[in-house]
Amino acid sequence: MSLHRYELGFLLIILNIYSLGLIDAVNVTASDSAANPLQAPSYQSHSSSAVYKPAVDSSYSINLLSSFPEDVEISEYCSEMLRLFGQRYVAYVNCLIPAARPVRVCQNCSPEYKSLSDVFLNISSDQMGPGNVSCRDSILRSDRLMLVFLLYGNLATIWEKSNCKQCVTTDLKGPNNDTLYYLTLLNQTITCFEKYKEGNHTELCKSCILPYKDLNDMYSGMEKNSTLCIDLEDSMNMTRKLWSKNFGCSYPHGETIPVIAVSSFMLFLPIIFYLSSFLHSEQKKRKLIHPKRAKSHNSLMNIQDKQS
Amino acid sequence: MANITKKVSWSSRGDESGAAGEETPLLNGSEQSRPLRQMSSGSTVFQIGRLSTVDLDEEITTEEQDSARGRPKEIPHNEKLLSLKFESLDYDNIENQLFLEEERRMSFVAFRCLEISRWVICGLIGFLTGLIACFIDIAVEQLAGLKYKLIKENIVKFTEAGGLSISLLLWVALNSFCVMWGSIIVAFIEPIAAGSGIPQIKCFLNGVKVPRVVRLKTLVVKVVGVIFSVVGGLAVGKEGPMIHSGAVLAAGVSQGRSTSLKKDFKIFEYFRRDTEKRDFVSAGAAAGVSAAFGAPVGGVLFSLEEGASFWNQMLTWRIFFASMISTFTLNFFLSIYHNKPGELSNPGLINFGRFESEAMEYNLYEIPLFIAMGAIGGGLGAFFNFLNYWLTIFRIRYVHRPCLQVMEAMLVAAVTATVAFIMIYFSTDCQPLGPDHTEEYPLQLFCADGEYNSMATAFFNTPERSVRSLFHNPTGTYNSLTLGLFTLTYFFLACWTYGLAVSAGVFIPSLLIGAAWGRLCGILLASTTSTASMWADPGKYALIGAAAQLGGIVRMTLSLTVIMVEATGNVTYGLPIMLVLMTAKIVGDYFQEGLYDLHIKLGSVPFLHWEAPATSHWLTAREVMSSPVTCLNRIEKVGTIVDTLSNTSTNHNGFPVVVQVSGDDEVLFDLATDKNAWCKILHSCI
């Protein structure tokens, strides 16, 4: 029993060093992670035993760990998968954060997402791995928190919302042809902006209208086909803001005079119509028929007075 | 012997000349002088007027009649006249020998079959009403979509190139074209199909036989007319015509024959009497309301409130059945049309959207605010009715020729387009285009790229969509100036539009006006207090404003509350809506009557209200009945009968048959209808 314990402790220390070497901000104790739930997804090192790794001053003693029997521990294969998942998760998030503003997540981070989703697919598949174990239940569904499931779910939602599928190739290796073409146009427009930025803005409006228009048309076309991802939307948004707000190149207000003239004419027509019908039409009259009432009675006169 | 060949027909169209005389009006071949009665000044209630489309050639001319005294007095139309052309429905069965024999022949099983066939007819009424509503909805959506797409493309093209006046002309032309067709069919083919149809159905359900109101021709003209009116961009709704259509369908289906098509299908012959017809028309009206708003219980209550005089449990049950079938059919077929079969999310023509309870909660301290909004709605509604009343009088007096009516409708359409265009053109309110924008045709016009003109969401849309966006768009979509201008212009446009010779309703325009100023109130409230979160969503104020304005204009109480509650799908709003509608009715009734009642009065319909006028309870029958009584002998000359029946001043539906005619003898025999008396008497004479 004590030999197991030393083995355990040795293993734990090695893993600790390994994990510390790998990542900067890492929570290694259960108490720590409990105290900072809002930190970025933390990587907890997993051992082949039960869940928590004790800190030096933690109240948990190593005695607890050895109390779990063999059959509730996760297998080696599964813990390896879990470790791999952790690595890829971190890689993906590391790629995402720098690409957050301006949004470039689809162009830059698709391969990382692909590898992450491959691992997760492996974990959650029904197939039995080597040693006849199913990792899905032991990793994903063993506790109330379902941490791995939640974390992956978050990232998958982000991927869905960013609509990246539309502008990368099917094997998620990189941007597809349309996106590349769009990016070329975007580049052209931005270079044009850069060139004329210093001078008069009207100069810019005149010279850069062509690349901007091409870009706009391409964007509208893609919008109609719904092949837009967040990268393209954001870049278009920023370009439009530059064009309209910073450089002030919107459409001119056009001629107001013809519009006012036509509208006044239209508004004047009904007046003419009503006046002419008032003056020329024969007023519709009604023929009165008087009912025959009983002969005049005193009370009748009273009625007339009361009714009028 | 009376010269029958010279007489005009004694049908109920009543286009004859006639005048009351001191003596009995029998014209037994002798020309009679027609002394003119002086109009008693100030007497208000019992003047009877008639249409003056008189063929004076038919009159028998004498020297006496050449004098001006012979002509009956003519006055311009006003609201205090009653027309002689209206008869009442016969609510009593004609219990003559034929009828009694027929009843004796029917067995118990036959009566049960009758009961089942009543249910079948009600189901059929609901089903057909739902189908018609579906047809209207789809047609409007397609055609209006086409029109807006065309105009939008044109505007987009001309915004860059300049020359937006061409877009304006295109919009005006499209509007006028559509409305021209809608108005032509109404003015030339079937004038009774003009307006919303609710006043006519109200009269029908209350016993007045408005001629031609439930014919197939009327139905066709109404449905096609409403499609053209809505597509033509007028400030109208399609809910009122839906109610009329439901009633027509009910009358047609339940009788098993069609007068317009001159075909008799030889079924449902038992129901060919006014008692049964009236019950089915109530069911039809309820089905119409239910299809229009997605409110089956509201439909039943509408029939109860407006019409059916004789109410019993089985009738209520059948009417409810018809309403439910109607809304379900509409829902089902619309879901198929939207390619989501079985989703059942379009229960009515107008869809207010779901009011989520969380964001739209109201607090107790907002109730006085709601009541204040109800008072405002009542006041504005009374003003609307007042303006519309004078406009209608002007139209009846001066714009009565069909071609003038068509021209007027086209002008209104043109001005509507112009006003909308000007508002959109000069508005500088731009909003960013969200990813889940509900606008079908966002107009960018002079806004920056990626933004759209928010005045266009109000004007460049069918009114239903505008109402929905006012209810549900997030805070900040509209600013106060936009809403204020919109309310003002749309108020006057809607007031001008109601009463045209087009088939059009007034529900949606009033809801839209109310939603606009309600939302404005919500925005102002949020801006006056520092903690904006206290007032949450301006959408619920839009709802309250819409209810207040609608209540102020039409003054319906119970049915409208239930309709609004059902249409918003949220029972918690029942209390504020009820309070608001009651307040609006009280405030509005102080100034002016409801719109439909005004139009009934202006149509010279002898409509009996629930209760007699307030100070008339002491009147005895003697003072209001004609004297001498027009009655017939048991043995009577054919000429006398013809004269009595053809004299328009005495075209009652029944005449007492007495033993001798002299002054005020007692009436010894019971009432017989004119047709029956005619047949019986002819039979006994020949």
From TrEMBL, chain A:
GO CC terms of this entry: cytosol
Native organism: Poecilia formosa
Name of the molecule in the record: Osteoclastosis associated transmembrane protein 1
Stored Pfam families: OSTMP1 (PF09777)
Key words of the record: Membrane, Signal, Transmembrane, Transmembrane helix
Spans through the membrane: 257-279
InterPro entries attached to this UniProt entry: Osteopetrosis-assoc_TM_1
Signal peptide: 1-25
Highest taxon listed in the record's lineage: Eukaryota
From TrEMBL, chain B:
Location of this chain's protein in the cell: Membrane
Pfam family, one: Voltage_CLC
Lineage, opening ranks: Eukaryota, Metazoa, Chordata, Craniata, Vertebrata
SUPFAM superfamilies attached to this UniProt entry: Clc chloride channel (SSF81340)
Record-given protein name: Chloride channel 7
CDD domains cross-referenced by the UniProt entry: ClC_6_like
Keywords attached to this entry: CBS domain, Membrane, Repeat, Transmembrane, Transmembrane helix
GO cellular component, one term: lysosomal membrane
Gene Ontology terms for molecular function: chloride:proton antiporter activity
InterPro entries: CIC-7, Cl-channel/antiporter, Cl-channel_core, ClC
Annotated region described as Disordered, given as residue ranges: 1-43
Domain of life: Eukaryota
Membrane topology: Multi-pass membrane protein
Bias-annotated ranges (Polar residues): 1-12, 27-43
Segments passing through the bilayer: 119-140, 168-189, 219-237, 280-303, 315-337, 367-391, 403-426, 490-520, 541-565, 571-591
